[in-house]
Amino acid sequence: MLKHFTLDGKRIPFAEGQTIMDAAMAAGEYIPHLCHNPEFAPHGSCRVCTVKLNGRRVAACTAPALDGAEVENDTDELRDERRTLLQLLFIEGNHICPACDKSGNCQLQALAYYCGMTAPEFTHRYPLRPLDASHPDFVIDFNRCILCELCVRASRDADGKSVFAIHGRGIQAHLAIDSPSGKLGDSKLHKEDRAASVCPVGAILPKHTGYAVPIGERLYDRKPISVAGDVSDHRKDSS
Amino acid sequence: MSNKLRVATCSLAGCFGCHMSLLDIDDKIIALADKVEFDRTPLTDIKRIGRCDLGLVEGGVCNAENVEVLREFRRHCTTLVAVGACAINGGIPALRNHYPLQACLDEAYLHGLGVEHPQIPNDPELPLLLNKVHPIHEVVRIDHFLPGCPPSAETIWTFLEALLSGQPVEFTYRQIHYD
Amino acid sequence: MVHEPRSSNTPVPPRGEGLLRSLVAEQYRAGFISAARIQALTAERGLTRAHIEGVIDFYSFLHLEDVGRFRILFSDNIIERMQGNRALAEHLCRRLGSPLGEVRADGRVSIDYTSCIGMSDQGPSLLVNGHAIPSLDVETLDRIASRVEANTPLTEWPQEWFEIPLNIRKKGLLLANEHGDGDAVNALLSSSPTAILAKLEGAGLRGRGGAGFATAAKWRLCRDAPVTQPNQRVVICNADEGEPGTFKDRVLLQGYAERLFDGMTLCAGVIGADRGIVYLRGEYRYLLAPLQASLERRRRAGLLGRRIGGRAGFDFEIEIELGAGAYICGEESSLIESLEGKRGNPRNRPPFPVTRGYLGRPTVINNVATFIAAAMIAAREEGWFRGEGTEQSSGSKLLSIAGDCDHPGVYEYPFGTPIDQILEACGARQTQAVQIAGAAGHLLPPAQFDRTIAFEDVATGGSFMIFNESRDLLEVVRNFADFFAHESCGFCTPCRVGTTLIQQNLTKIGDGRGSRWDLETLRRIGALMRNTSQCGLGATAPSAMFDLLDHFEVVDKRLHSDEFEPAFDLDAALQEARQATGRDDPGAHL
């Protein structure tokens, strides 16, 4: 027998073992999220999917659904917190959208649009991060990495290669590559790997294409992410 | 005098694209002219800013002159607005933040391709560059942000209309973009 | 249709178990972990090089490059700063010609700061190759310097330097009462697990770490969690005491380790565990040998190993695993990740360790004092423990008292004791504030000194830092902010970025460039961290800052203006350009 919780008052059915996010997605309800991709084990690091479960904040992607629970999602308070989290991600890296080919197909940007973020507002860190163009098919721009670890998870769990890992601690935490030189070109990353196309932002981009769809006509230029869905739902036309 | 809204604009480390977008509001510019009058802007060629209701600032802060102009704007404008990607997060000029200033100067004035009479300019007339390019909200208090590279004419118009009518500023989904 | 819950936790890497131990051993053997050694480990364990380097990078005491024959780390919590550690560190740097944070050119020595090493009652202190030297002064440092210059092995240094007095100032329920080596195990053997659980429940024992979860309930949940083989459960002692200013676990491990092991063995017998691990913080590495000797004694006495107390099936072993300088590993799920050979990121819960802990096995994690209390309760009459404390907080609390008082040290008080009584007993005068429960705890003003130490009032893991009226509380809170920025694991957005922004804004205010606007930013970020962080580190990191803003006036007085102040020093931002152009005219300044 199915159990239920309410999401902003709507009844959402769920099966034992499902998270709030799983159940909401299955019911076609949108809870903003960034590090979550239903293909992979939930992670819970971006915190953008924070909802209130019976008044207590939890990450919807990792919190098990509870029978009879009241979940708040689309409230001013939570939207404000999500916007602030996004602002932190923007000032942490170097996100210069006009110079990024992912612009318009970027989930970080799309969420910021969705949450009504007009500016990052905090003090920018402008970290010095390198760009790695050593791979024949992909370029990694670490300036845009948001540490969602989707590439780490995809390479480990889908490709069985563990090409990516996290190094450093705290604000020094950063994406690292498993290869003798630490460069992507020396790694086992292959064109067809799931990890190669899983990045929700512009950190891992394919080479040899660019600006195929003009700015202004891209995925999230046309529709908000709550309607258009995640980048990974549009793998074909997003690159 | 008139009770029109007095507006000043400037472009710091920007490309004037945001100003072009402002002019791109088409025939609404006539409606606008009824409601606002311009103080210092590149459009009027007024050099010194006076008391204004609204200041629109394009571009980030890359040198000492930018800082001074920005402070003047803050002192004279009741409402100060960051217009466009560069004012908001440094934008394209902030790409130089990847390099030490000395390396940028060396490349531009000493070792770059086609440099003749290599010398880093040191004329006191020239504003000194800041170590890094910064968004304007890191230097003065900013009241509103209009994102976009440039913000669309519609975004600018929506903002001005709200301000003129004293309504809260609310953008539609398509009016917020960063590229 | 029933789904298996999907675990959000990183899978246990192949042969990850014991990775940290190999790395720590190599670090102390060679002074660093070389590329060749990493290569060998990847082959031995089937782990990627990037994984191993990610683990090394996570721990402050592990290095990819040689840190010198003598690695000297000055403890740098706020108390030791007040005791003058910085001047002493600078003195030693000058004396040895070894710049702070660098390895001396000849590779002999490196000097740096490290987070609190649990010596606030006898600081300033340092660690040299993992061995603590307390009560430093210039003279001792000069003598240390000569030995470093002479390349004298540590074993030939005067051994009295390494003696660490227990410094127990007040004994109470736990410390004043005797406990025989196997009293708790014998109590179990002569009764039953359910009887012991009933006794712990009746005593109202709650976890001594500060969170206060009922111990009997935790043990029972673990005992009831299914396992595939008998006794496949695990007992872990969290001896990763890392809250700045605390040192009572060090004292317990130095003087009362038998009771701890008795308590762990009791737990094993109650829940059905065959494996015990003490996760000892890397800063207490010098306790490893005496603790192992104590375990060996217990094995010989039949109190550990196979057939404990002669009972068939009661098999239990205890190993000691060393941490390597990561405060977050005191968080129980991070500790488990660390033991499994991973970076110490906290896990998402549920599942909780009691059902899926170390290597997926049901695991009880308690701290040192909790196991000791459990052991003593089991060996005594009902009602003994409840005879002290309050209704909700029975028994006593060990406090690590340090800072501005005449008699710092360990004090054991019944729960429910008011703070002002404690301040009087330790000889604190003109007290401006007390920071209770470490950097993550609360900064209390005198108006709250009538509050009591108790789970229902001021809860604490045991750190109790005293600041008199001469101290700059903004500096105190800045020190905590530095600590959290350094110790955040970096996994979740609010903590990773938030701790840095708080540090940055407090520094701005402290440097005299702050305005009221910065206070708004601090509050906004602090609230976000409280509400959305993945674990307790991020959620509690802003606590002392909020207290500073809410209960003290110091920050208001330090604001440069009520108007907005720039995020950076404008004139300093022209320095590079002035240098490049050689200009210094008025136009070259802001």
SSE blueprint and pairings:
The complex is a heterotrimer of chains A (239), B (179) and C (590).
Chain A: E1 3-7, E2 10-14, H1 20-26, E3 50-53, E4 56-59, E5 70-72, H2 76-92, H3 107-114, E6 131-132, E7 138-141, H4 150-158, E8 164-167, E9 174-177, E10 204-206, H5 219-222, H6 225-228, H7 235-238
Parallel strand pairs in A: 1-5
Antiparallel strand pairs in A: 1-2, 3-4, 3-5, 6-7, 7-10, 8-9
Chain B: E1 5-11, H1 17-23, H2 28-35, E2 36-38, E3 52-58, E4 61-63, H3 64-76, E5 77-83, H4 85-89, H5 101-111, E6 129-134, E7 144-146, H6 153-165
Parallel strand pairs in B: 1-2, 1-3, 3-5, 5-7
Antiparallel strand pairs in B: 4-6
Chain C: H1 19-30, H2 35-45, H3 49-58, E1 70-75, H4 78-82, H5 85-96, E2 109-114, E3 126-128, E4 131-133, H6 138-149, E5 168-170, H7 183-189, H8 193-203, H9 215-224, E6 233-239, H10 248-255, H11 257-271, E7 273-280, H12 288-300, E8 317-322, H13 332-339, E9 363-367, H14 368-378, E10 396-403, E11 409-414, H15 419-425, E12 431-436, E13 442-444, E14 463-468, H16 473-487, H17 493-510, H18 516-532, H19 536-540, H20 543-551, H21 554-558, H22 575-581
Parallel strand pairs in C: 1-2, 5-11, 6-7, 6-9, 7-8, 10-14
Antiparallel strand pairs in C: 1-3, 3-4, 10-11, 12-13, 12-14
Instruction: Work out the oligomeric state of the chains in this entry.
Output: heterotrimer
Overall domain count of chain A:
2
Coarse morphology of chain A? globular
Helical run tally of chain B: 6
Poorly predicted ranges of chain B: none
Kindly state the percentage of residues in helix of chain B: 25-40%
Overall pLDDT metric of chain B: 94
**Which strand order spans the largest sheet of chain A, edge to edge or round the barrel?**
2-1-5-3-4
* Helix content estimate of chain A: 10-25%
Task: Give me the CATH superfamily of chain B.
Answer: NADH:ubiquinone oxidoreductase-like, 20kDa subunit
Main β-sheet description of chain A = 5 strands, mixed
Total count of domains of chain B = 1
Q: What is the number of beta strands of chain B?
A: 7
Give the count of helical stretches of chain A: 7
* Rg estimate of chain A, integer Å: 18 Å
Distance between the termini of chain B: 40 Å
What share of residues are in beta strands of chain A? 15-25%
**Number of DSSP strand runs of chain A:** 10
Poorly predicted runs of chain A: none
Order of helices and strands of chain B: EHHEEEHEHHEEH
- Please state the second-level CATH architecture of chain B: 3-Layer(aba) Sandwich
